[in-house]
Specification:
Number of helices: 21
CATH superfamily of the largest domain: MetI-like
Structural class: alpha/beta
Distance between the termini: 22 Å
Number of strands: 10
Largest sheet: 5 strands, mixed
Radius of gyration: 27 Å
């Protein structure tokens, strides 16, 4: 199977879950948003003092970037969950469906609110007078006369809200809610443009279908056509029902596999999923999560298993700055995870994915740079690139302190674009990953760290507290421990990175699984 054919096949295989989750979150947000907006708009149309604040607040919400609004709800919900746990003895999941639902609900409100207020305020006063003249109460006038007349305009607002929500829902992937955005975020990280295009087209088609069905309802209200209203309702039920049906099939308990936002994680996620499915588990993925978010998700049970790196846990979660040696780090980390967080560390997979500063080989040779100490002398004239996390991580602070690094400019990139920026000369140095296949692909020079400012980054397999004692799951995953060395992981990563013969993460995982058997 060719690379493109394989990508299309994988994209189609993921479509039922991604589409179902996208429809579930979108429809839920639209329904709740409509249920809040309609009575609020009715009240605002009657109370002049409420109209301005209601429309103003809804308008302000629309100015907040969608990804930022989605991300903001996670720490708010996490803090609220911790509070309810301590005070009332129960918590709730702060990742995934809930933050996405709340953010998208807020996004859905303005069109319905604005259109309803405009339609009701624009009702001909003579109509209200006539309604009172035939003995109608204000309530009867509202429900029997004014709202039916305003229904086409309200439906137009609902159409706008639906399109907004379906489009914005693609941004819910980073907060752990599966959606059609999984195609887009995964594709951007792995330069899989088939996935990016597939996600964009699927979301656009879904929005178009929903918009057309709501337009049919709008015309039904305008023409007083019961047939059009019935056809619209039937069409919506068919589309929504068909999309959601794959989510509720089977009674097998689902294991959620988490991944961070780079190709190695997607490959390992696919490898873990394959092993668990062969052991009889039903699996789902939460892709593209940040380092802190994914660990908290594991603690809370929103993620059941994922691959973490010892240096990240040591510095970010354990807040340790000392370096007692690799074995001591691994032993102390496993004990801390078990005793403090209830997380089970199954052990290292066999390779290390360390932060490593890299330069183009010709550039490093011309400047005579071999170590980070050498780099420090030239840093004030150079530009450095890193991923979204690196410059805010403790490791960066430790390196700066150890070597006195001060660059002329810092730039942040998605990890795949970071390597292209180095090769093209947009930056002189990047914070790369030692297991990344692009280091060999672009013949990059890794700058040594003689002061060992960076901790070891052994890839370790973590299991959530609720599955820590699951013997069947542990048995399925144990063959992965110590079985993947650095050259093999680099080769698997390179399969996804190669521009001439690009593979999907699933294809790379299949190759990796075959190597483990051999």
């Amino acid at each position: 199977m060719s690379g493109t054919d394989g990508m299309i096949a994988v994209a189609l295989a993921r479509l039922p879950e991604y589409l179902g989750q996208h429809v579930l979150i979108s429809v839920s947000a639209i329904v709740i948003g409509f249920a809040i907006s309609l009575p609020l708009a009715i009240a605002a149309s009657r109370l002049a003092w409420l109209r301005g604040p209601a429309l103003g607040i809804a308008s302000i919400i629309q100015t907040i970037p969608g990804l930022a609004l989605l991300a903001l709800f996670y720490p708010l919900l996490l803090a609220l969950s911790l509070f309810t746990t301590r005070v009332f003895g129960f918590g709730f999941r702060a990742l995934g469906f809930l933050p996405a639902l709340l953010a998208l609900t807020l996004y859905s409100m303005l069109p319905v609110l604005r259109n309803t207020v405009t339609a009701l305020a624009g009702t001909d006063p003579a109509i209200r007078t006539a309604a009172r003249g035939v003995g109608m109460t204000p309530r009867q006038s509202l429900f029997l006369v004014e709202l039916p007349l305003a229904a086409p305009v309200i439906m137009a607002g609902l159409r706008t809200a639906a399109v907004w929500v379906i489009g914005t829902a693609t941004l819910s992937t980073p907060v752990g809610q599966t959606s059609l955005g999984n195609y887009i975020f995964t594709g951007l990280q792995t330069e899989n443009w088939v996935f990016v295009l597939f996600g964009c087209v699927a979301a656009a088609l879904l929005a178009l279908v929903i918009d057309r069905l709501l337009a049919l309802a709008e015309s039904g209200f305008a023409r007083r056509s019961r047939a059009r209203l019935v056809a619209s309702a039937a069409g919506l039920l068919i589309v929504i029902g068909a999309s959601l049906s794959p989510l509720f099939g089977g009674g097998t308990k689902t294991v959620t596999i988490g991944t961070k936002s780079f190709e190695e994680q997607y490959i390992l996620g696919a490898l873990i999923g394959d092993r668990l499915e062969k052991a009889g588990f039903r699996t789902m993925r939460r892709d593209g999560l940040g380092s802190t978010v994914i660990f908290h998700a594991l603690e809370a049970g929103d993620v059941d298993v994922y691959v973490e790196y010892s240096g990240t846990l040591w510095t970010t979660q354990m807040k340790r700055a000392d370096m007692p040696g690799r074995k001591a780090v691994l032993d102390q980390m496993a004990a801390w995870l078990k005793d403090r967080r209830g997380v089970r560390d199954l052990g290292p997979l066999g390779f290390e994915n360390a932060y490593a500063f890299a330069m183009r080989r010709d550039r490093a040779k011309a400047l005579g740079i071999e170590t980070l100490a050498d780099l420090a002398a030239y840093a004030p004239r150079l530009k450095i690139g890193g991923d979204y996390e690196f410059f805010s991580r403790p490791e960066w602070d430790a390196v700066v302190k150890a070597y006195g690094l001060h660059f002329a400019l810092q730039r942040q990139y998605q990890s795949n674009f970071m390597y292209s920026a180095l090769v093209d000369g947009d930056v002189d140095v990047i914070a790369a990953f030692s297991s990344d296949g692009r280091i060999a692909q672009y013949d990059l020079k890794l700058i040594s760290d003689p002061k060992q400012a960076l901790p070891p980054y052994d890839a370790v397999l973590l299991v959530s507290p609720r599955h820590a004692g699951d013997a069947k799951l542990i048995a399925a995953l144990k063959p992965l421990l110590g079985a993947i060395d650095l050259p093999v992981m680099q080769r698997a990563n390179l399969m996804v990175d190669r521009p001439d013969d690009k593979r999907t993460s699933e294809q790379a995982a299949t190759w990796l699984a075959q190597r483990l058997k051999n």
